[in-house]
Fold these 2 entries.
Entry 1:
Amino acid sequence: MSDKPRKQTRREFIADGARVVGLLAVGGTLGSLARRGEAQDTVWQIDPDKCIACGNCATECVLTPSAVKCVHEYERCGYCELCFGFFEDRRIGDDEGAENQRCPTGAIRRSFVEEPYYEYIIDEPKCIGCGVCVKGCQAYGNGALILQVRHDRCLNCNECAIAAKCPADAFVRVPADRPYLLHSRAQAEELEQADRQGQKYTGRPAANGRERRPTTGNRAE
Amino acid sequence: MRRASAGVVVLLALPAVVLAQEAFPPPDFTTGYQFPQITTPGPREQIFSYVDIGVLVLTLALATYLSIWKRSRRELVVLVIFSLAYFGFYRKGCICAIGAIQNVALAVGNADYQLPLVAAAFILLPLLFALFFGRVFCAAVCPLGAIQDIVLLRPIKVPGWLESPLGLMPFVYLGAAVLFAYTDSAFIICQHDPFVAFFRLGGSTAMLIFGAAVLLVATVVGRPYCRFACPYSALLRMLAPLARWQPYLTREECVQCNLCADACPFGAIKAPTPTEDAPPRRAGKGTLAGLLVLLPLLVVMGGLLGWASSPVLSRLHYKVRLAERIWAEEQGTVEGTTDESDAFYHLIVPSAELYREAGQIRGRFDTGSALLGAWVGLVIGVRLIAMSVRRRREGYEIDLAACMACGRCYESCPLELARKRGDGVQYAQDKL
């Protein structure tokens, strides 16, 4: 009977030791992992250089309508009268009739700026993220229309349903404080500078031999 | 005429696209036109992630207090409903401790993924609490457990011959989830989460039907996902028996009424062993020796089977599937292209580079699948040994690995009820 309390204490001591070891091991691993970056939250975004505008963004998102919407990068746009992101290939006229438009929901608003330039604005609440305008702009235009995950809608699922089905593997995790991958001139400059210095630019995935559309040098300013 | 001019435009535009120059020059506006601003609405502020961690700590602490100290099921149920509302419907069940396993595996396997603090906190804190207090996370914090607990109406006992093999599934699921997350192939826990479609109030038909089916089963089988699927439970099961402050039935002398074992919907209370039933010690030792020899054989066999299934498992990775498709197209064994191969050709990356990357991924899968197979073999072997070792129980014992700290047992113990009413002896927590 007098042995029992001692055995209990020894077992308790070993158990305590095991707990401390377990704690340190787990805590240490996670601490080292989390400290590698700023341990910031990541969000999903589409790499517009990889996107082929297949249409999965509209159908695979867990939300209806999708959290992905078309974004117009105005600084890359040609402001053409005959915009192929706006107009269908096969159409019966060059007016803004619904039968002539690519967009199935009429989410692009076309307005005259000055001769011969027309402005195209995306009406976001109507956009379903199907990407037909993006495809037209990629094929015939400057690629100024791109699909982007809109973070006022996106739930930021740990496993993005669209990312799992993207045929171009265009979904990447980006830091939450730089949640958009636009071709803006500033971002392109930052990227090129990082490449020159041989550094990693975390705002955008590495180029890896992929062609990049230069946005500097083409603009007369 | 228009079609011809469109055709000319296309012809002019094509080489421009290939050379990555902009097809249409920038407009020179003369009217002082200003480019509209591109709106960039941001995601949820980072501060709210810290709020989530804070709520997690508070609910874990409260669950511990209510389950281990105050021992009050009624208040625990209120906490269950709160957790369901906050972590379930408000946070839409994401990020959760179960899924965070994958984030950790991804971070370990990929240097360019930084583990977010919230993922580290969500996986670590419930394990920490389990190490000290048992599965209080399951009791009243996990939203998946909460939703199953809420719908439980008439629990039926799962027979032992079914419970033992099914109880291995969480370990297998854990191994598979870690493998696929480590190789950045898929987050299978998230893909097969039965309840997230309800939390999000939206999802594919398949997800909704699956979730409804699991909930239907959960009305009669206590917490089926927790007991037979949840990969996080595999970790909790290993840590909970080490707890310092454990859930207990009663300090009073047990009258062996069996009400507690009856009340437990999860089969976590073991009745005392009848003294006449013990098999002769020599036969028992023989079985144990045999199983100990069998264990390394199972591990090796599992490893070999795992390694053999590596090609199949590796196809879960996008690049491996793509490489196989591109190879088939280059060899001419398939006709046409798919969206995936079209997208690849659009990238102007040499296929040799793709094959190299896919080969590296396959290499990772060869090792990883072998390890997964060995892990499954180990788990089966250890379970067989555990089943063969018969422990003598003189009273009713809580199986801490399976106990969800829900409090149903001591709510049904007549001695505990008497104590609370003041008829019995008041005793303090002597382990404090």
Entry 2:
Amino acid sequence: MRVALFVPCYIDQFYPQVAIASLELLEKLGCEVVIPENQTCCGQPMANSGFANTTDGCDANFSQNFAGFDYIVGPTGSCILHLKEHHPLEKIRNSVYEICEFMTDILKVTSLNATFPHKVGLHQSCHGQRGLGLNSMSELNAPSYTKVFNLLDLVQGIDWVYPKRADECCGFGGTFCVSEEAVSVKMGKDRIQEHADNEIDFITGTDTSCLMHMEGILRRQNSKIKVIHIVEILNSYA
Amino acid sequence: MLSHSEASEKFIADEERTNWHDETLWFVRSKRDVASKNVDDWERLRNQASDIKDYTLSNLGELLIQFESIAQVNGVEVHWAKDAAELNQIVLTIAKEQQVQTIVKSKSMLTEECHLNDFLEKNGFDVVDTDLGERIVQFRNEAPSHIVLPAIHLKKEDVGETFHQHLGTPKGNKDPQFLTEAARQHLREKFLSSKVAITGVNFAVADTGEFVVCTNEGNADMGAHLADVHIACMGIEKVIPRREDLSVFLRLLARSATGQLITTYSSHFMKPRKGQKMHIILLDNGRTRQLAQDEYRNSLKCIRCAACFNTCPVYRRSGGHSYHQPVAGPIGSILAPNFDKKANVDLPFASTLCGSCSNVCPVKINIHEQLWFWRQDLMKEGLAPVTKKMGMMGMAWVLAHPSVYQIMGKLFRTVMKFAPFIINNGLNPWFKQREMPEVPKQSFQEWVKTNRK
Amino acid sequence: MKSREEILQAIKAVSIPTHEMPTSYLPDQNQLNVYAQFLSSLKTVGAHYVEVSNEAEASDALNQLFPSINRYNQIEIVEDGLSLAGVEVLEIKGQFGVAENGAIWLDEDDFPHRVAPFICQHLVIHLKSKNVFAHMHEAYIKLEKASTGFGLFLSGPSKTADIEQSLVIGAHGARSLVIIIYN
């Protein structure tokens, strides 16, 4: 299966290990992975700030880099949701997948050669969960399911737990993280506390934006808790 | 007037109190969850409620005319007010005819929107808010901070102090039972001596001409049934087509609001009491303007349950007063800009767009999507600070040019590595309470060039 | 009236896609025992109930609940609602109950003045056990043609949680509610 790897801008610049893990994982699962080298960004930072009318250039660059792919896969719920809802080309909108969604729905992965003998707190990133339907939502009277954390059941040695408020937002929210700094950090601290209450070693999820925000707070608190993107767990080996 | 972020910062400075406020409201959300999960057809009910409201908005004129004509046959006097000033004037005129001093009023967010109390007081009337929560904030000269639980931002000590000052309850007494009893006695006096009562309207039924008022306390009824004149105030969007539609809304309303099965009283007013005058005022005040906008029309479906407030992680940690206008929370943030874009430009940005609000909304308003649309419209109106606009346009340009993006990325990482103080300082809001991400040796694309080519 | 025309004009000027009138809602057919559910809901909303077979039993029960207290059970119309301000216990008839939420439909024709069920200190409602519907939908089918000037669904005693979310039973309306259910 031929797949284009979409790398969110902040992962490219600050968390390349997430993109590396995504690449390796997809290859292990038998995909031919193409990495468009002139990709930049999905356009969400401008659009969510009220400047969706400035993203033409960014959208065009995306179209150029990802034209002709049936599967555009990225380690991000938030960016994929933005592309799905706002990218001008229908073909792009219909071809984007968050990586766990891709593994569950398209590759239908049933086994992984992965080991991660640690206790892990699960963070459900809002846009992926409520926007892409990656996990069921606590507000609805509907059956529960997950397309993300089911993959953790394929990992040896892992012990995972949801925090008390299973799907409350972490407070990153794009430029919200600085324009409403006090609320953003308070939300992040509260999230972290709930995870800490479960005595976990790692917090994991599908979105590095959430993890980056929580990591910033954890490191300021000199906490022993680390963040790790779920693809890094799925790609880990003994 | 403080912006939402400024007000929130002050609110959060008392972290313990913020935790208490957050947990109290989350508890209300949890009760709503239990109630909704006990109704097997909950999601189907939401769809029906949403469909009924969609039908209503697309036939609003006809339904209002139908409501008016039947209400009139029933003996209710129907008034139309195009704006707040007109509504206030109509109420004043009616009240003046009665030669009274005191007016009792049950909960009506619409009258808050119109600043009716202030207006009546300036004209010599004593307006008594009879809902317990509203009476408390009225004594304190504060606005309600929540449309269903007006005093949710106050602890029992605060209420005890307020009642000590205004009702003479013993200093230091903070027992809710005792304080409620004191309020009952005090407000009972007002009910027994008032001849003019103002209420809100939860639902107005077009095919019967009746309107329904829901309370737990019974204050709307104590006021209305003893009054010679009952004035009901409603927004034009509150009409629903058929009496049977009430079944859907009454099953959803209290469960969504507080997790109760139904409010204690769901009072159906069809005809005035013998010898009583009953008035209803239909208010526009910008609702037709909202109706005309495809993106925001849905916000008019709101039944004012406040489920969105209780679930909103931002509201819970910033409090209703941070929203600086009568209806706070997520729904307030999509209604308020319609009244005044400049004053409320901050509100659609007081959100992470997490989407929880839309999920709890009993009438399926796409609140989080409307927040996004308002951001576009407000920025297009030129209401962004110049720095933000320049920053965004700069970012858009960089991200449209891959080689510039790669250079800028490398530059930023280099500065972070060798001169972090340029980024890690008081001018960087991120850095206030968070560490910046660590700088990797290479960007991913650089790694690809090194390792995969 | 000028504003009426302006508002209706403004509405008319908006082009909205048509929506169909939704068909009447059909609730889930649940297998639950409706009467048992009603009793359970009454408990949840803070109402007391006594099951009786006849009026004599009802009278006994009420004498025990309200010893040496006068009960008001006239339904003759009273002109001045204030004259009921001193009523300790009011007894009225309820038309029917709703199992899902413990609500009882009250019609003003069944009480002396509209304010009666609110102004009394304690409220007693006499209800026939066979008059209980499962959901609000059935209730409104029953009410379809009713044209009473004032009626209400009443569920439990008056209450508030406005002071720090502490539930207090007895706000402005009746402090307690007793349902006498006739089997």
